Amino acid sequence: MNSYSIRKVMKDDVCKIVEIYNSNEKFLINHLGYKSIGESFINRELQEMEKLELKQP
Question: How far apart are CA 32 and CA 48, in angstroms?
């Protein structure tokens, strides 16, 4: 059985996240309309998630 741990994303993780996203071009095209993304895209997404998290009760 696999073991997983969950933690908040860190700045050092962004490069790996970009690599994972860009490993599936079909997903990107179908869901985002892009063939690839960069670190700035992930950083913007993380900022948006942080804003939503702050609004949680």
Answer: 16
| Chain-centre distance for alpha carbon 20 | 9
The two structure tokens encoding residue 47: 């900022």
Distance CA 48, CA 57 (A): 17
- Nearest CA to 10 out of 42, 32, 41, 51 is that of 42
Residue 16 has pLDDT above 80, yes or no: yes
pTM over 0.70, yes/no: yes
Q: How many helices (H) and strands (E) does the chain have?
A: 3, 0
Query: What are the extents of the domains in the chain?
Result: 11-55
How far is it, in rounded angstroms, from Cα 30 to Cα 14?
22
3-state class of 54 per DSSP?
Answer: helix
